[in-house]
Amino acid sequence: MGNFYLDIETTGLDSQKDKIITIQFQELDKNSGEALGELVILKEWESSERDIIRQFIEKTRIADPYPFAFVPVGYNLNFEHNFLKERTALHSFTPLDILSKPFIDLRPFGIIMNRGEFKGSGLDKITAKPMNGRLVPQWYFAREFDRIVDYVRTETAAFIELNAWLHREMPLFLERFKQEHYIK
Predict the structure, then answer these.
(1) Do the Cβ atoms of 39 and 153 come closer than 8 Å?
(2) Nearest-CA neighbor of 3 among 81, 80, 74, 77?
(3) What is the span of the domain harbouring residue 97?
């Protein structure tokens, strides 16, 4: 099984009008949640949206029929799902449906950690990630690509820190829950 951090950056929020400008992924240790290998950042400004989607499909096993070949791990994966499905179809690839196979989305943990509130549960609100991605389109159109890459690296580090923490702490919560509720 291959667990992979997955995230994208886009020029906006509408998967029909806006385009994917980065696709980033990194293999994760399934036991510790820590990063394995290097972070891969596919950049649209170095080729095209179609090309980074093609590279993503070729470099990963995302399209493999075996459902555990590429398990996306992310924060609010519905966003990536909508864009990847729409934009792959637009570019005449088989539409990627990342939510029809196994995936791990940490957003529900963020909501629970935020006392059940959606507002204030963004990755930038519960980790060291300094901001949300609202400036990414502005940086893209201003051709400030280094700022986007820095943002992606910072976001990835914050996500992996949370992911590894959850991998360490959640088994302890399970043991405590079992003890408190007399479950063997």
Answers:
(1) yes
(2) 74
(3) 3-180
Query: Which DSSP helix (H) or strand (E) runs through 13?
Result: none
Q: How many helices (H) and strands (E) does the chain have?
A: 6, 5
Residue 41, CB half-sphere, CA atoms under 13 Å: how many?
17
> What is the CATH classification number for the domain harbouring 128?
3.30.420.10
Q: CA 106, CA 78: separation in Å to the nearest integer?
A: 11
Number of folded domains in the chain?
A: 1
Q: Return the SS3 of 7.
A: strand
Distance of alpha carbon 156 from alpha carbon 3, whole angstroms: 14
146-158 pLDDT, tens digit each: 999 999 999 999 9
Q: How many CB atoms lie within 10 A of CB 131?
A: 12
Q: What is the pLDDT of residues 1-46, one digit of tens each?
A: 589 999 999 999 999 999 999 999 999 999 999 999 899 999 999 9
| Residue (of 48, 21, 1, 37) closest to 160 by Cα position | 37
- Given a contact cutoff of 8 angstroms between Cβ atoms, the answer to whether 72 and 103 are in contact is yes
Contact 62, 96 (CB under 8 A): yes
Half-sphere exposure of 55 (CA within 13 A, CB side): 16
